[in-house]
Design goal:
It is built from five helices and no strands. By secondary structure, it is mostly helical. It is elongated. The longest helix has 32 residues.
Length: 122
């Protein structure tokens, strides 16, 4: 699950950086403000990707998804991209969690002698 979530956040950071010139040219945002805001959001995405080893890192990821959607008030296209990344985040977490559950089920019986059909010597 962590690998999927981290991948979404890294790609999200790339999109945010690519949106900086768009905010300047099409959004009419001051270059310094767009650069600072975009760089801060991209850096937050990258840092959060590293913090996903902690359970609260996923909550921070949800906050970042909301911030990305809200950046649509600066660059309108970010509403669509923010919604897309929010869906990717949610699906990634769901699929990743299910994959971890299946892996745990598969490996649960490996150390169990009854599951392998072995009988005690006697």
């Amino acid at each position: 699950m962590r690998a999927i979530a981290a991948s979404v956040l890294v790609f999200e950071a790339i999109i945010v950086v690519l949106a900086i010139p768009v905010a300047i040219d099409l959004g009419g945002v001051d270059a310094a403000a767009a650069g600072f805001g975009g760089a801060a959001l991209a850096l937050a995405c990258l840092l959060t990707a590293g913090l996903l080893r902690y359970p609260w890192g996923y909550a921070v990821g949800w906050v970042l998804q909301g911030l990305l959607v809200l950046s649509g008030f600066v660059v309108t296209a970010m509403f669509i991209l923010g919604a897309l990344f929010t869906v990717l985040w949610a699906v990634g977490l769901r699929v990743g969690r299910r994959g971890e559950e299946l892996r745990a089920e598969r490996w649960a019986g490996v150390d169990d002698p009854k599951a392998s059909g072995a009988t005690p010597a006697g």
